[in-house]
Amino acid sequence: MIRKRITIAFLLVSLISLLASGILSLVQLNNIRGATEESFIETAYEDLQSLTDETGRVIDRRLKKYSDELSILNDYVSDIYTNPDQYLPVDVTSPYDVPRDALELYYFPDPGAHVNMDEVGLLGNVKTVFESMKATFPEIDSLYFTSDDGANLQYDNAGHSAPETIIEDEVAMRGRPWYVSAKKTGGTVISDVYENITGNGETVTFSASVFSGGAFKGVIGMDILTKNLNRELAMIAVGKSGSAELITDPDAPLVDDPDMLVATSELKFTDWTVLYAIPRSEVTAPVKAVDDRVFHLVLLFSALLTLILALTALAANLYAKRISIPLTALAVEKERISAELDVATNIQSSMLPHIFPPFPHRKEIDIYGVMDPAREIGGDFYDFFLIDDRTLAVVIADVSGKGVPAALFMVIAKTLLSNYALMDKSPKEVFETVNNTLCENNDEGLFVTCFMGYLDLETGEFVSVNAGHNPPLLKQGGVYGYYKTKRGLVLAGMENSAYEESRAVLAPGDVLYFYTDGVTEADNKSKELYGEQRLLETLNKNTGADIEELCADIRQSVEVFADGAQQADDITMLAIRFNGKKERIRPRGECMDELTIEAKLENLEQVLAFVESHTGDFPEKSRYHINIAVDEIFTNISSYAYENETGTVVIRVKVNDTVMIEFEDSGVPYDPTAQETPELTQSADEREIGGLGVFMTKKMMDTVEYRREGSKNILTLKKGAS
Questions:
Q1: Which residue among 26, 421, 566, 593 is least enclosed by CB atoms within 10 Å?
Q2: Helix/strand/coil for 26
Q3: Rounded to 5 degrees, what are φ and ψ at 71?
Q4: Closest of 619, 610, 627, 596 to residue 701, by C-alpha
């Protein structure tokens, strides 16, 4: 009996101990659970706020990018007004002729406006830039420009219905809020969000005033669909049932639910707000799940309660780590990426020619180039290489965008350009081939502005193509001026784009200066641009500098102008001085030099270059008269001497105090000196055709002599140096 009582007492004591241990464990568990929930909520809120702030910075950068792109459009339109002679008129279609839902540039006037259609034709050049921008930023709904006199050019897919939906109730575009606000402020304006009348949804408009020579010319505009920005937010996972939202109405109420964990971040670029929300129950669900499991284990195995609580804390800790952002790992990753970007920048720079002089044995040219990169990896590059013993290829380009994608695109473009040039293709053929290659699989929507030219080191002939790049400057006669080129569409902008070649002939001492927009678009703390005119003036202050000093002077001028403002884009320059083949410019009094060439009009440039290589030290006016005479005589021989057959022309040149140029052909007998002087008092309609070119040649040359030797016509021109 005593043993039984002792056993029962032991069992009762054990049971009481077990119950007391269990109750104590439950109380302890409840306290731990409360602390863990608060810890989870605090950690989750910090992570949610960090994610919200980072998203806000991303959207701010996106909106800033739209503003920057609008500035590019602004500069382009301003340049059309400032330099109209550098652009060819473009046909702009009527909105009635635009197929439904087709992306197209179309034109319509404000009601009652009196519009200069020649101006509209020049403004049509914006289509190229509009197309490229729309391809890069598909969230752009519409791009447009309204001039001060009421001309409207719009690029979108609403052209078919534009007259009905865009010009509502005879309200002129110049009366729209985006136009009025931009004109009033004289700068860039961001509108409130509104419902687009084309039915595409909520829209925000970026607009900016366009000036030329200090005069207001109109307003450039860009419509952005906010649903595309919200679509990107919706793709961000916030737990299982959380949400992300871009609130564009500053008066809209935010989430006011105590059961929701809410984080907000106000944008700096606009008065919009980024909002992230997640239910508190979802944040604390892991704690409750762990708590339930521990509760059952406490009831069954109170002796192991301490271990179970430790495991619970460990599980909670592990789960907390799972939902929190590993800041240390992010910092390490950021440092690793930064180091890799530095390496990539060095690799990018090393791909450009940087040893000068590059061809020490070639005295016909001096070359110097430099690229000063901005903070990020950029897409600027220059290149030059010998295609053959007498032809130098030169390239300068700028890839849209920044970072690694632009750098990779730069490498591809640079490689393709050099490879195709070395395959004996003309500049036009190189651009057309490279453009189609770059358009393939261009998912990033990148494009390249590029200028490429071939320089004949013997004749000085320069053949070039321009794909939307800044025109170079050419020093001739000791003065720099902008080299007028035929601008084509940017590379990778549109498949099967056509490009036209421009030609010039360089004389010894002429200099070509190439650059990217990092030079002319460098700004100061007042957001003023360095500009084309300042660049031209700086070059003409340094006409006597060698090309390396010239590039250094331009760089210093840009730095002084910036006045400490941070460099936003790569600054890339390339300069070439043509010296010519010294043996081609013969000392006066030597024997005649001779060129035999087919009598074809396409060979005229080569003939002119051959003559100019002998007259480089003659006064500019004399060289001008000589070129006109040579052009007239060679054109006549090519057009009439051999009728339907092909023949040759021999051109001989001898220089002493005068230049003597002799043309010899085997065509039909023809004595131009025997032609009667045309009746200049008559109108062009009354005067007989022909004779005027020969008359001009006689007037410009000191003597013009003809003789017939056997079956050959020989015409001799003489011109003094004065």
A1: 566
A2: helix
A3: -65, -40
A4: 627
